Amino acid sequence: MRVIGLMSGTSYDGIEAAAADLDLSGDTLRMRTLGRLSHPYPEQLRTRIAAALPPAPTTTEAICVLDTGIGQAFAEAGVRALAELCDGHADLLVSHGQTMHHWVEDGTVRGTLQLGQPAWIAEATGLAVVADLRSRDVAAGGQGAPLVALFDALLLGGLPGVPAALNLGGIANITVVAPDADPLAFDTGPANALLDAAARHFSGGTEHYDRDGRGAAAGQVNLALLRRLLDEPYYRLPSPKSTGKELFHTPYLLAALADAPTPDPQDVLATLTRLTAATVADACRDHGVTRLVVSGGGARNPTLMRMIADELPDVDLSSSDDLGIASDAKEALAFALLGYLTVHGLPGTLRSGTGARHPSVLGSITPGRQPLRLPAPVSTAPNRLQIVAD
Question: Does residue 389 surpass a pLDDT of 80?
Fold first, then answer.
């Protein structure tokens, strides 16, 4: 089955599309990757998303406009992926949508909202669309995040030592695959969320991120500010746990700076980069990680990667590219895999990854132009992922 995955993360830069041919044989799922592309959001849409994200107030009108606008942007990305990656032929499209709110109270996720109406995608591409993948896990008592845990566990299974997969998006999440133990996954804290907020704040909105980590590289870590940031109670919560920009946003950063003034913006960027490295390293040390496979936008930040290496001198750092999964495509491919499992009647979650009462078949299906015909349900779930490069 040929599947297209579409993903936009908490940094809301745009949409990552990736395609793969997937085939389940026994307990092995073969994935032949077909490439990836990036589809930027229109600037007006990015501005609307930013204006509606917590802690900003919003309206049902704004949410309706965003659901349509994001859905249309995902539809455009799907049309491009179908033509450019799949030669016009695919069987299924899987859309993560754009997370706008992740409702957490006292460590329990009460709800999660991803916008991007899948009807626009189905109409534009003609393909059946699996969307809203997080809500079923939340309904089953889980965190609804990180949903890449199953993909990570299949990808890292069998590697020596204690391997872990780290994704550095707006929020950093990790999956630890220790031998003779259930995989464990959770959000470690901010990766780019506070860095992006600082870049926008200090540039007056002209810069959206610390390009190549140059600002952080030129600054010095303010230990008082770092201590203030590390006082965040989230870091001491047990896993599974998840978080988002409902917590780590510009007012959060400004409150920390009010308590620990740091006049030089480059020092702020250096401190925030060290915060990400320190919280990732704490998670790795807590679980005895010996190899860390990194993906996501933060993997392209040399200053962040250097700080993580400094914090974890005895851990082997590598990229998911080394395992055949392009760093920028990993999450889109992970959601493609989850959608494939959904239409085959297989669960896409791990209890140990999200804390749910049971694994769940994820998402809702919007039919394409043809009558909806699902494959026969499969009784054997995969326990190994074999990557075959295009």
Answer: no
